[in-house]
Specification:
This protein has about 240 residues and is α/β, with parallel strands linked by helices. Helix content is about 45%, strand content about 15%. A 7-stranded mixed beta sheet has the order 1-2-4-3-5-6-7.
């Protein structure tokens, strides 16, 4: 996979296909390989650039002593966008959706389309008084940080998987799948600071109305459903 530099950091990404460029930003606990099927389906029409965020693939690890922000992650997206000489389409899933939202504010008119799949800017729940959903997700974040800080990543992974899927999902996985997931979740230790600590007002995305599409599953968790609802209400 090609590599580019962004200040002191290295970013790795896959670059497949020809046509209008699409930057794909993955979810927490995942890397750019999550987009393989989509890339295969669309690379005959689009140039698909699927990137890794901090700590995934060959992209630089996050500096342990620094508090991470969405802006930090967005700089990686912007670095890829700046390689291109035309408008871009940003597609982000979960944490990648939050990063895409932040990057869009920086890229502004260069963003042709902003497509968000179950984005997770959880701070918006607190900003808009959705306290039950906010408290629920904050408990999860505190669990990840508490156990992650003492390197109890297997316990983190088991709880994380069952929370986002369903009780018993972790036990249904093979040993190898569990080991892979446990390792992939380690960068999430820093990502919680980013999605809980942002201060951007939801109105800042008003400029993307008509260019933004937000998607969610019918049975997603409450926190995600309420974020999507807030975006729908405030960005009609």
């Amino acid at each position: 996979m090609p590599l580019i530099t962004c200040g002191e950091f290295t970013i790795d990404y896959m670059d497949v296909g020809e046509g209008p460029p699409v930057i794909l930003i993955p979810s927490s606990g995942s890397g750019n390989r999550q987009w393989r099927k989509l890339v295969g389906e669309l690379s005959d029409r689009y140039r698909m650039l699927s990137m890794n965020l901090f700590g995934y693939g060959e992209t630089s690890a996050w500096p342990k002593k620094k508090r991470q922000t969405l802006e930090d992650q967005a700089t990686l997206v912007i670095a890829i966008a700046e390689m291109l000489e035309e408008p871009v389409r940003l597609v982000g899933h979960s944490f990648g959706g939050s990063v895409a939202m932040k990057a869009a504010l920086k890229l502004n008119e260069r963003v042709k389309r902003l497509i968000l799949i179950e984005p997770n800017p959880f701070y918006l729940l607190n900003d808009h008084g959705r306290m039950e959903a906010y408290r629920d997700i904050k408990v999860l974040g505190e669990f990840v940080k508490k156990l992650g800080n003492v390197d109890e990543w297997t316990k983190v992974a088991a709880h994380f998987v069952d929370y986002w899927n369903s009780e018993g999902s972790w036990e249904s996985f093979s040993d190898q799948h569990r080991a892979n997931l446990t390792e992939m979740l380690k960068p999430t230790l820093y990502e919680w600071d980013a999605v809980l600590g942002c201060e951007d007002d939801i109105s800042e995305w008003q400029k993307f109305v008509g260019r933004m599409l937000v998607l969610k599953g019918a049975d997603t968790r409450r926190a995600i459903s309420e974020i999507v609802e807030l975006l729908k209400i405030n960005l009609p």
